[in-house]
Amino acid sequence: MRNVVFASMRMAVLMWLVAAPVAGAATKAPARQAPARPVKLDAREQAFVAQATADDAMQIALAQLAMAKSGNPKLRALASRIVSDHAALNLQFARLAAATHGSKGNAHGVPPGNISAMKAHLQTLQGEAFDQAFAGMMVNEHRKIIAAYEVAAKTSADDRLRTIAARGLPVLQSHLDEAQALLKSNNAAEKQVAGG
Q: How do residues 162-188 score in pLDDT, each as one tens digit?
């Protein structure tokens, strides 16, 4: 009997010795990692962020105008996606700017392509002429900004900026593809009317 009690006690002690480090690890507070130190974006990266946020503002403004003026449901749907997608991209750039000490996102920068002149031109147009001009502007502006995103996605030293650019590329490419399809369908419709 004494051997059975002794064996049971020995087994209990062994189990406690094996389980104690595991249990201690489970209750032990995780080691704190030092918060990531803010890193400044270099001048080239800051210029890209300024260009991208200015482009977002310009595209949003033109797309909002298209949503108000166009009667084409496909163009209005594209414009709606442009507004939401570029607003989401702009938010990512704002978060990046807040996380990078001393780097300033240019959410209120001067949009490329002189937005005032572009809006003024679109305001003078109606119907198919408006739709053609808007789709043409979206093709031109998306081609420019996609080229900048491609460079940032490949060459930025900041991982977060590279990620934003890489994830933004397919979104921007889809806008470009849809705008090109709208231009093509509008041109085909004009040819049918002219020939028919």
A: 999 999 999 999 999 999 999 998 776
